[in-house]
């Protein structure tokens, strides 16, 4: 009898714990439903000629015609090239730079030094892209920019940065790396400090130099994190940082050939034509293409190293 009571009491305690855990989940579940799942019904706008007076459900059905304008426009090749090209460069250079910084952080001496450097490299990530655009303008302004003043002081001619396309692939890449590497570096650093220190000790005893320890211990330990970060970035291959490509070039039309991406093009089309259906179609298409890219990248990873694949 006593044993039965103990079992019943244990079960009641277990149910109380389960209910407590589920009650903690409720706010997050409600948020996901309201913010992520209910708005998915709005995807129907991508297949309609949206009319404000008729509403979402009353607007005329257009099928796939909203999806075709991205490919029929004369700028289609340009915006696709810019979107994919920049993202490939950002993924490659961003991860290489972030891994390098994470490894250097690991070799810093003193906890205070590490905390200071982690804070400093994270600050750019927390700055609004609007603020970043004016920081860049402070460097590149033709009349009073720091770089032009430096060039003139060295006997050169000032450069009109905001009217010449050839400089902007480099400028945008530098700005993106400067703003984003801190966050990625800290993620990689969290993985680096989790690597078993005995591996480094064993490598040191075997006579491995610092570079060999990095190559044979640190980088293999980072492999899983690198693959995860790359796969997540591949999912946004057809997206772009709107602020980077719209705000930083100061909306200059003279350099739009190298700064217009899908997001910027859709925004311009939306503000000029007020065509909500086409904007929704572009966003839907970006999501589908990103999903396909993640599946393809993960399939390649599974072929090379099955244990490192996400699924």
Short structural description:
The chain is an all-alpha fold. The chain has helices at residues 2-37, 55-58, 65-72, 76-106, 111-126, 129-140, 146-153, 168-192, 197-205, 210-234, 242-247, 256-259, 262-273, 276-304, and strands at residues 48-51, 59-61.
Question: What's the structural blueprint in terms of helices and strands?
Answer:
Layout: H1 2-37, E1 48-51, H2 55-58, E2 59-61, H3 65-72, H4 76-106, H5 111-126, H6 129-140, H7 146-153, H8 168-192, H9 197-205, H10 210-234, H11 242-247, H12 256-259, H13 262-273, H14 276-304
Which strand order does the major sheet show?
1-2
Number of DSSP E strands: 2
The number of helices is: 14
Shape: globular
Percentage of β-strand residues:
under 5%
For the termini, the CA-CA separation is: 49 Å
Mean pLDDT: 86
CATH superfamily of the domain at 68-128 and 160-308: MetI-like
């Amino acid at each position: 009898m006593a044993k039965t009571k103990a079992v019943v009491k244990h079960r009641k305690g277990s149910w109380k714990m389960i209910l407590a855990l589920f009650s903690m989940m409720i706010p997050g579940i409600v948020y996901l439903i309201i913010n992520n799942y209910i708005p998915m019904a709005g995807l129907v706008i991508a297949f309609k000629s949206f009319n404000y007076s008729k509403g979402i459900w009353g607007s005329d059905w257009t099928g796939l015609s909203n999806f075709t304008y991205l490919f029929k426009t004369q700028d289609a090749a340009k915006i696709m090239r810019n979107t994919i090209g920049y993202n490939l460069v950002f993924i490659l250079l961003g991860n290489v730079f972030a891994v390098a910084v994470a490894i250097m952080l690991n070799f810093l001496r003193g906890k205070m030094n590490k905390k200071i450097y982690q804070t400093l490299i994270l600050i750019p990530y927390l700055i609004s892209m609007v603020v970043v655009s004016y920081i860049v303008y402070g460097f590149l302004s033709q009349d009073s920019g720091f770089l032009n003043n430096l060039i003139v002081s060295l006997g050169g001619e000032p450069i009109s940065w905001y009217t010449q396309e050839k400089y902007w692939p480099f400028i945008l890449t530098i700005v993106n790396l400067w703003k984003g590497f801190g966050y990625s570096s800290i993620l990689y650093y969290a993985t680096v400090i989790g690597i078993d220190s005995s591996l480094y000790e064993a490598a040191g005893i075997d006579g491995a130099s610092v570079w060999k320890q990095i190559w044979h211990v640190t980088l293999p330990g980072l492999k899983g994190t690198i693959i995860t970060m790359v796969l997540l970035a591949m999912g946004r291959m057809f997206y772009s940082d709107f602020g980077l490509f719209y705000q930083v070039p100061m909306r200059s039309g003279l350099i739009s050939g190298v700064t217009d991406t899908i997001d910027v093009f859709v925004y311009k089309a939306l503000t000029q034509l007020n065509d909500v259906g086409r904007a929704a179609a572009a966003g839907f298409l970006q999501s589908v293409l990103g999903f396909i890219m993640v599946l393809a990248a993960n399939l390649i990873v599974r072929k090379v190293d099955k244990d490192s694949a996400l699924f």
